[in-house]
Design brief:
By secondary structure, the protein is mainly α. It has one domain (13-135). 57% of the residues lie in helices and 2% in strands. It has helices spanning 14-37, 57-76, 78-101, 114-132, 145-151, and strands at residues 49-50, 53-54. It has a two-stranded antiparallel ribbon with strand order 1-2.
């Protein structure tokens, strides 16, 4: 079974995926541009701040790249945008956990501080939520395009479908 077979292509949730990706991508691009405008050293960890978060040249470039990926997903739209949102959101959450453990250690090569960790968690959860909206749930309504694509032409009788034994 191919995962793409069960996902509907044309549905109203497409707008949620696109707007979420575009807004979060735009925020990341602005942060990255502000960091590059300050001409920060690539691996500098002296605590230079942009928008109340510490940054260096590498973090600015990574912010631009991840913002670009989200904007690309917004342009493509559909299930691709949803999948990109979920993946990028998960990476941001993982980055938040990693940098939470390496605060004030030499492994903190992106010069994260606690404000960066919180930002990483918030943006990660926000982007992932945009990607999962209406797609991932145990109780999708029967008019949801994902529910319909998974259950074929089954009619909504108000009761749950019986699983085959």
């Amino acid at each position: 079974m191919d995962l793409r077979d069960e996902l509907p292509v044309d549905h109203g949730l497409n707008r949620v995926y696109r707007v979420g990706a575009a807004l979060c991508g735009l925020i990341l691009i602005v942060f990255g541009c502000l960091g590059l405008a300050d001409q920060l050293a690539f691996f500098d960890t002296d605590g230079a701040e942009v928008a109340a978060m510490s940054t260096n040249g590498l973090l600015s470039v990574l912010s631009l790249a991840s913002g670009g990926v989200l904007i690309t997903g917004a342009v493509i739209g559909g299930n691709t945008a949803s999948t990109i949102n979920i993946a990028v959101g998960g990476l941001f959450v993982l980055s938040g956990f990693y940098h939470l453990f390496v605060l004030d250690r030499p492994a903190n090569f992106l010069d994260f501080r606690m404000s960066n960790v919180i930002f990483s968690f918030v943006v990660g959860l926000l982007v992932a939520t945009f990607g999962m909206y209406g797609r991932v749930s145990g109780g999708l309504p029967h008019d949801n395009p994902y529910w319909r694509s998974r259950h074929g032409n089954a009619r909504d009788t108000g009761a749950r479908l019986a699983l085959p034994e």
